[in-house]
Amino acid sequence: MSETPVRHVRPPWDEYFMDIVDLVSKRSTCLRRQVGALIVKDKRILTTGYNGSPVGTKHCLEVGCERERLGIPSGQRHEICRATHAEQNAIAQAAYSGTSVKDGTLYVTNQPCVLCAKLAINAGIIKIIFRGNYPDELAMDLLKEAGVRVVRYDGHAK
Question: What's the predicted TM-score (pTM) here?
Fold first, then answer.
């Protein structure tokens, strides 16, 4: 008597990449929001990034959150933060290794802020898939104006 083989269901590409983004976000050193980013081209991962302090500097986990101390709301005064955003780190990591992200897709746990949107546009990202909200309408307006396809991922939750 032979057993019926167990059918393995492979996740669709967007779910697969969003699952990886969730894992990447766990490396974040931000006390407020853990964000992960992943840049993909032709279904191949080019680079990852999470939000955290620049290389060689102390993390917010070590010194605390200046934005929290000053009561700065989310989405405002980005310059008062030790961390580099996940999207920025993913693009910087690609540049560091000489990898072009032109025509790539950016997967990210949250909607990009305006700074990350501008950087993604100039890096040649053509599509952004994100899950969580972020209070930044200008980012969405600029992405639309630049012709970047933006998709809110409504697949399985974290």
Answer: 0.90
